[in-house]
C-alpha cells in the first residue's frame, strides 16, 4: 500500500500546470505569439549579466573539489556572512552568518520552518489569497492549515477574522508580501497591527506564535514601494527568502531562512530548522549557486518590464470594466472576474487564447490571477483578447 497522499500529489497536476500544458498545445496549433499565457510565475527578465559572469569565474578559478563538494549543512560559512552583511546594510539589522540557513529555494525554506516548528495538533494560519503550495507544505509538516478569507478591497488583512481564528494550537502565521497572487504589499500599519495581535496572543497562551515571512518577491516592487522588514516589527519572525524571482533563478533553487537571535529559544529554533532540512534529505543547498547568490546579493534583475506590463494591463483592464486592485509589486495581478464563477470565467477565457488562473485555488473565488511576466508586446496584444472576453459578459 503506497502513501495515498503522495500518490495524489504526484498525479494531480495543478490547475496552473494544466493551463501551461494547454498553452503549449495551443501554441503548436496557432503560434506562440497568439497565445496569451498568463498562467505561470516564471520570470521573463534574464538574470543580470553579473550572475553568469560570477558563475563562470567561480568555475574557472575556484578549486573544483571545494566548489563542487558538500558545503556544511547550514551553508558555506563565508556565504552566510556575506549575506548577513548584505541584509544588515539594506535593512539596518544586526544579523551574523549563524542566523542564516541556506535552502533549496523559498519552498524548502518554508518546509524547513514548518517541519521544524510544527507538531501534529498544530495549526498554521494563512491569509487568502495565498500561494496554494502552502497547504501542501503545512500538511506535509503534519499540521493543519487555517485560512483567513481575503480582504478583497485592498488585499491587506481581515483582522477580525484573524483574531477569531487564533487559539492555543496556533503555531505559526505565514505572510507573503509582496503577494502571490494579488501583488499587494502589506503596509506598515498592517504589519504593526499584525505584530500587536501576535504579541497579545503569544502572551495569552504563554508560547510564541511564529511569524513566517515568505519573501521571494521582496525586490520586485513598483514606484519605490516600501516593504517593511518583518523582524523589525515582531521578534518571533523567521524570514524565508529566495533568488528565484529577484535574480530570475528559479531553476537553480537557492534561498535561505533567517532565524534572528531575538526569536524565543533562537538556538533551538535554528537547530529545528536545520534538523528539518536533514530529515527532508536536503543535505545542503547547491554549492555553486550559494556562492553566486552571495556574491550578487546586492543586485536584482531589472524589473522595469514588469512595471510596464502592470501599468498597461491595469489601465487596459480597468477601461474595459474590470475591478483591479493596483499591485505594489510582484508580476501578478488579481482582478475580479466578470461573473462570480471564476472557474467558468477562466475556462471561457481559453476560447480567446487567454490563459488566466481561477482565484479559487488561491482561496479567493471571484478573482483571477494574471501572471504578467511576459514580453510587453504579448501583454499589449492580449488587450484585444481581454476586450473580447469582457464583451462576452458585459
Ligand atoms: N512562495 C511564494 C509566494 C511563491 O510564489 C513561490 C514560487 O512561486 C515560492 C514561495 C517558492 O519559490 P522558490 O522557487 O524559491 O522555491
Features:
2 domains, globular, 12 strands, Aspartate Aminotransferase, domain 1, 14 helices, 394 residues, binds pyridoxal-5'-phosphate, Aspartate Aminotransferase, domain 2
Describe the model.
- It is a single chain.
- The chain has 394 residues and is an alpha/beta fold.
- The protein has 2 domains: 4-48 and 302-393, Alpha-Beta Complex (Aspartate Aminotransferase, domain 1); 50-295, Type I PLP-dependent aspartate aminotransferase-like (Major domain) (Aspartate Aminotransferase, domain 2).
- It has 14 helices and 12 strands.
- Strands 2-8-7-6-5-3-4 form a 7-stranded mixed sheet, sandwiched between helices. A 3-stranded antiparallel sheet has the order 9-12-11. Strands 1-10 form a two-stranded parallel sheet.
- Strand 5 (170-175), helix 9 (188-205) and strand 6 form a beta-alpha-beta unit.
- Helix 5 (77-91) runs parallel beside helix 11, helix 6 packs parallel to helix 7 and helix 12 (304-319) packs parallel to helix 14.
- The longest helix has 18 residues, at 188-205.
- The protein is globular.
- It binds pyridoxal-5'-phosphate.
- Residues 41, 105-107, 131, 176, 180, 214, 216, 242, 244, 250, 255 line the site of pyridoxal-5'-phosphate.
- The site of pyridoxal-5'-phosphate (PLP) has 13 residues, from helix 6.
